[in-house]
Amino acid sequence: MTGATRAQQLVLRGRGIVPGRVEGEALVSHETISGWGGIDPATGTIIERRHELYGVCFTGKVLVFPGAKGSSGWSGFFQSTRLMGTAPLAMVFTNLTTKAALGAIVTRVPTVTELDDDPVARIATGDLVEVDADNGLVVVHGPWSQACHPQ
């Protein structure tokens, strides 16, 4: 079974933090993300120099990551992405902390956490992901390119 076939069948169940339902392309980080000094809210880009996604824009993507790191300023920086129109489409994270939860709430994007399997290990950047935070579901439909451009 190929990775794309497995991904098309993947349903993760968890806890919705911010309600809503969206579908979009996944951007996966295996590292926690710093808000203050780690992202540029004006561009929605990760600017932490040693981060695996340095220079990558998360705007309009389903951001899948382990959680937040750094100070309590994390939530303020992610709120700024909402105000500047550069926020992720949704958030899916593994480690529920107060700063990550508050960041999701002030960013006002559908967010699911505490999943029954590790989304960072099971979802790949480029997968088409549906985040249904109303029901605590994350559904991976398959690679974004195939979903948008069937062959």
Topology:
Layout: H1 3-8, E1 10-13, E2 15-18, E3 21-28, E4 33-34, E5 39-40, E6 45-46, E7 62-65, E8 68-69, H2 74-84, E9 90-93, H3 98-107, E10 111-113, H4 119-122, E11 127-132, E12 137-143, H5 144-148
Parallel strand pairs: 3-7, 4-8, 7-9, 9-10
Antiparallel strand pairs: 1-12, 2-10, 3-11, 5-6, 11-12
Helix pairs in contact: 2-3
Organism: Streptomyces spiralis
Domain Phosphomevalonate dehydratase small subunit-like: 33-112
Pfam family, one: AcnX_swivel_put
Task: Give short descriptive properties of this protein.
Phosphomevalonate dehydratase small subunit-like domain-containing protein, 151 residues, lyase activity, PMDh-S-like_dom, Glucose Oxidase, domain 1, 8-stranded mixed sheet, disordered N terminus, two-stranded parallel ribbon, alpha/beta, lyase, single chain
Describe the structure.
There is one protein chain. With 151 residues, the chain is an alpha/beta fold. The chain has one domain: Phosphohistidine domain (Glucose Oxidase, domain 1, 3-Layer(bba) Sandwich), CATH 3.50.30.10. Helix content is 24%, strand content 32%. It contains five helices and twelve strands. The strands form three sheets. Strands 1-12-11-3-7-9-10-2 form an eight-stranded mixed β-sheet. α2 runs parallel beside α3. The two termini are 19 Å apart.
